[in-house]
Design a protein that fits this description.
Nucleotidyltransferase, domain 5, alpha/beta, binds zinc ion, five-stranded mixed beta sheet, 40% helix
């Protein structure tokens, strides 16, 4: 176990957390997946994550002093410098000093980052963006997360809130978004938004073959059900899925033209469960962006799978990839 540096990375999602010991080569040496339960308190999460960290270190036969760093990627709004989770939509937390709490209970200094930012860094360093300078990550899951790596550095904005790409406007005055504002991309191509649109359509009397499969309960719907029903030709589901695909095409194109990255990496549940989605998005971006952008940009799937956030968080915590930044 003495080959190269290792760091601990955590992916703190809405229902589960992944705790991983990651090598400087990006390989996960040991990991644990835990269910976090419904609306846990900050103290409960801290206890669960600390147990997980101790467990993973125990399996590796290592002490806290032997790891190069500790990073946590959490869904929500983060102030990186202060290590504060200012808002967690999953847990309904406000202004939780999570980095401090974890440091006290694990003995490891924690770097706190937005989950998709961490995933974007992981993909840049070890995944689909290896060897590039500039990467944009678009991760449609329950919502739509984004991440920007410019010149090998994660770009967080002036106050830490950059890359909230799900909350850019797709349709002026359009559907209500989970954030309480209208017309955002997330309302059309995030899993929760797609499901909410399906439920509203059924309640307004629209017919769909999917309803029987859901036992007459539109609330049970998942975006993947809508994708499958759309492939089978269901009219309502086809309309909703087309809107989702249009939203993702538009979002990718707008970011491509605005930022001229080397690569746009798509991950997240919506894309992971739709095998045919990347080709049409890539074609659309190439056809509709300026020639200079179209000539080189690549639109690809994420490669690190469900460990992307934990790997990226570990890399940020451990300072992995900092040498690559300096060469740029
Ligand atoms: Zn929004």
């Amino acid at each position: 176990m003495e080959e190269g540096k290792t760091a601990v990375g955590i992916d703190l999602g809405g229902t589960k957390a992944i705790i991983a010991l990651v090598g400087e080569d990006g390989e996960v040496r040991f990991s644990r997946r835990i269910e976090v339960g419904d609306k846990p308190s900050p103290e409960e999460i801290t206890a669960m994550l600390s147990d997980g960290v101790k467990g993973v270190l125990g399996e590796a036969g290592m002490t806290a002093e032997q790891v190069a760093g500790f990073g946590v990627g959490a869904a929500g709004e983060i102030m990186q410098d202060e290590g504060i989770l200012t808002y967690s939509p999953n847990f309904d937390w406000h202004d939780v000093p999570l980095a401090d709490m974890l440091q006290k209970s694990t003995g490891l200094k924690a770097v706190l980052e937005n989950d998709v930012n961490a995933g974007a860094y992981g993909e840049w360093l070890f995944g689909a963006g290896r060897g590039t300078r500039n990467l944009v990550a678009i991760f449609p899951g329950t919502g739509i997360g984004g991440g920007f790596v410019f010149d090998g550095k994660l770009y967080s904005g002036s106050a830490g809130f950059a890359a909230e790409i799900g909350h850019i406007i797709f349709r002026f005055g359009g559907e209500m978004c989970g954030c309480g504002r209208r017309g955002h991309f997330e309302a059309y191509a995030g899993g929760a938004g797609i499901a909410a649109r399906f439920q509203a359509a059924v309640e307004s009397g629209r017919m769909t073959s999917l309803l029987t499969r859901l036992g007459g309960q539109p609330k049970n719907v998942k975006a993947t059900d809508i994708y499958s029903a759309a492939l089978e030709g269901d009219t309502l589901c086809s309309e909703l899925w087309n809107d989702a695909e249009e939203a993702l095409k538009t979002l990718a194109l707008n970011l491509a033209v605005a930022l001229d990255p080397d690569v746009i990496v798509f991950g997240g549940g919506i894309v992971d469960n739709a095998p045919d989605i990347i080709g049409p998005i890539a074609d659309f971006v190439k056809k509709n962006s300026l020639d200079g952008v179209a000539s080189h940009i690549r639109i690809v799937r994420a490669e690190l799978g469900e460990n992307a956030v934990a790997i990226g968080a570990a890399a940020l915590g451990g300072g992995f990839g900092a040498d690559k930044t300096e060469r740029m």
